[in-house]
Model the fold of this input.
Amino acid sequence: MIKIGPSLLSADFSKLSEEIKDIEQSGADFLHLDLMDGHFVPNLTFGIPVIEKLRKCSDLPFDAHLMVEHPENYIEGLAKAGVSYVTVHQEACIHLDRVLHQIKEAGMKCGVALNPATPVSSLKNIASFLDMVLIMSVNPGFGGQKFISYTTDKIKEACHMLASAENTHAVVEVDGGINSETAKLAVGAGAVFLVAGSAVFGADDRKTAIAALR
Ligand SMILES: O=C(CO)[C@H](O)[C@H](O)COP(=O)(O)O
Ligand SMILES: [Fe+2]
Done:
C-alpha cells in the first residue's frame, strides 16, 4: 500500500497551519518534516518548538527527516512533540546503533537515510532492527531538485537487504525529485513511502497532485 507524504519544506512558511490542513484534506497519508541545521546540510529550516505547534493543527502521522549533526540531541523533544517516525542520516551518526535504540526507547519508529553516494550495504548489520530505510534520490538540503536515476537500484538493494534480514515490517521510503513520472520508477523498485515537496505544494490543486502520485 503506497503512502504519500508531502514535504513541508515546499509549503508557504507564512501560513503553515493552512498548508497542512490543505494537504490533509487533499489525501496525504503523512507529513514529512525536514529538520536542517545549517551544518550537516547548507540550509536551515525549523526545530522542535515549531513541530510542537504544528502537531496541534493536524492528525497526520509526522515523519521527521533529521538532516542535522548530533541527532541524539533531538530525540526526546521529537517524542514529546508527537512525532511517529524519526529518520537520521547514516553519514551524521558515529554511534548509529545507539541513536536508533534511543529513538525506539522513546516510543517512535526509527529510520536511516542514505545520501545518494552512500552504499545500502552500510546498513547490513542493523537491517533487522530498522523500521524504515530512506533512500535519498537527491543530495539533501534543498527542495525542487532533479531525481537521481541510479538511486532506483539502491531502492531495490534496500528491499533485498531487509528481506535477507527477515525484516518484514520495515518500509523503504524515497525522498527527492518525486513527481508522477519518477514515482513510477521508485515504486517499481520497491519504495512504499513517497515523499514529495514541490510536486504537491507547488501544484495549484494538491488533491489532483496527490492522486497523480498515487
Ligand atoms: O529532504 C528533502 C531535501 O533534502 C526534501 O524532503 C525533498 O527535497 C522534498 O522536496 P522535492 O520533492 O521538491 O524534491
Ligand atoms: Fe526529506
In short: The chain has one domain: 3-213. The mean pLDDT is 98. Residues 7, 32, 34, 65, 175, 195 surround fe (ii) ion (ligand 2) (CB under 6 Å).
